[in-house]
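During the second year of the project, the team shifted from modelling isolated chains to modelling whole assemblies. The rationale, set out in the original proposal, was that interfaces cannot be judged from single-chain predictions alone. As a representative example for this report, we include one of the complexes processed in the last quarter. Its constituent sequences, exactly as entered into the pipeline, are reproduced here:
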Amino acid sequence: MTTDAPAAGPRRSDATKAAILEAARERFAADGYERATIRAIARDAGIDPSMVMRYYGNKEGLFAAASELDLRLPDVGALPDKHIGAVLVTHFLDRWEGDDVLTAMLRVGVTNPAGAERMRAVLGEQLGPIAAGLCPDPADAPRRAALAASQILGMALARYVLKFPPVVEMTREEVVAWLAPTVQRYLTAETP
Amino acid sequence: MTTDAPAAGPRRSDATKAAILEAARERFAADGYERATIRAIARDAGIDPSMVMRYYGNKEGLFAAASELDLRLPDVGALPDKHIGAVLVTHFLDRWEGDDVLTAMLRVGVTNPAGAERMRAVLGEQLGPIAAGLCPDPADAPRRAALAASQILGMALARYVLKFPPVVEMTREEVVAWLAPTVQRYLTAETP
DNA sequence: CTTGTTGGTCAACGCTTGTTGGCAAATGTA
DNA sequence: TACATTTGCCAACAAGCGTTGACCAACAAG
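Output from the structure prediction step:
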């Protein structure tokens, strides 16, 4: 039987598990939850579909593992308040283009309740504290964070999912120049 | 055989067709493309699944018919420029809460290529001209329209699809107060 | 060498999906 | 009345899905 201790040595199957996760992220990001089939993910990973079940239990478990996400938001305490918006927008563009996890979460969150819940949790837990340290009334932080999220998610939707041509053609600098004041205002301005 | 003339008299089946369309919009809006099954739509409409095929050909044809959409954007030429943002945001909130077509388009557009194309077309054709009449350089209109769309879609995503609690709890007036300046700036400000 | 564990394939299950064609009743037309 | 069209239901198809359990090869421990 498998050791119960969490710190077991590296197993031979670790490479396989990683390959499954990578394939799953790509498929979830490209196709959404329903059309990302376990069979297709297994084919991409070069193994049998039943292995996915063995290692992740079922499809929901696979998605949960594949969408583990740390936004790695920068520490904004050390920054001049004036540049917060630009820093955040730049950071999100980086994260979105760096790997498939965010696109996968967005695509899945729109049609799958578990995906939506994951998205609410991630943004609430990771963007909320930043808003709390910035906005005039800390009790208003969740709302400020959600407003900023609405603009950032909307941009991600238009640029990486729906692929509106005018948005796709913008450079990263142009996107930052347009969005930074918006995010800045949502996080720091007085309540209108 | 059926008359080829487009202006045939009202048929008995018109009510059925309408019931199918209504059920389809609800299901697409609630479940997205893949999980909105023809069988479920037919059950909602109180008829046999094969009727859906007879009247709309296949599932793609049904979605195309169900997502026919006129944003009914107001004529902004007659309005003071200062209030354009508020008028547009208010109008989109109305449209989004008025029926299921927009939510259906958003949910489907994220996982289905035809849905994404429909979304690009609708926003480009209907929001583009408005931007053209407002922004400093008309050649910049598509980009301005897409920026405004990114904020409006992001809000719709957060409020009606992902249901972020802080966004859901905001009143319509609060949403307008926060978003109007953003949309106003995207459409009318000088290029940053 | 034997034995137990791990990593992996294969074949199948029960179910749901979109889609099709045949048939019966209602309706319209002569 | 007789016929043609429309409207609808029913039963089935082939394909694809998530999931399961039996089985085999490689490896590690004794």
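Residues 53 and 61 of chain A are 9 Å apart (CA to CA). Residues 76-188 of chain A form one domain.
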